Amino acid sequence: MKRDQEHRSRILLVEDELNLARPLQFNLEQEGYDVRHTPSGKEALALYGRQPFDLLILDLMLEEMDGFEVRPPDPTA
Q1: Whole-prediction pTM value?
Q2: Do 14 and 58 contact (CB within 8 A), yes or no?
Q3: Considering the domain boundaries, does residue 20 fall inside one?
């Protein structure tokens, strides 16, 4: 089911292997999601700080930092 263009959920995809990221991004976009991809954990943190995302999909084995380091801080902590 395609998502309404006005209410598209925003996803930040953090994956450094393009052969995994491209088809995942394509399929999510085909389902109506607004997907932003970056291969870099540092860039992901910068993007997350500048704009809201509804979902983060994180590679846990990035080169410069792992996905656990990329996660935003828990606002309830």
Answers
A1: 0.82
A2: yes
A3: yes
- Tell me whether residue 9 is in a domain: yes
CB 53 within 8 A of CB 10: yes
Q: Which pLDDT tens digit goes with each residue over 5-25?
A: 567 899 999 999 999 999 999
Residue carrying structure tokens 């209410």: 7
For residue 16, the 8-state DSSP code is S
Among candidate residues 48, 51, 37, the one with its CA nearest the CA of residue 70? 48
Tokens of 41: 């954990």
How many domains is the chain built from? Answer: 1
Residue type, 69: E
CATH number for the domain harbouring residue 47: 3.40.50.2300
Domain containing 57: what range? 5-70
Is 58 in contact with 20 (CB distance < 8 Å)? no
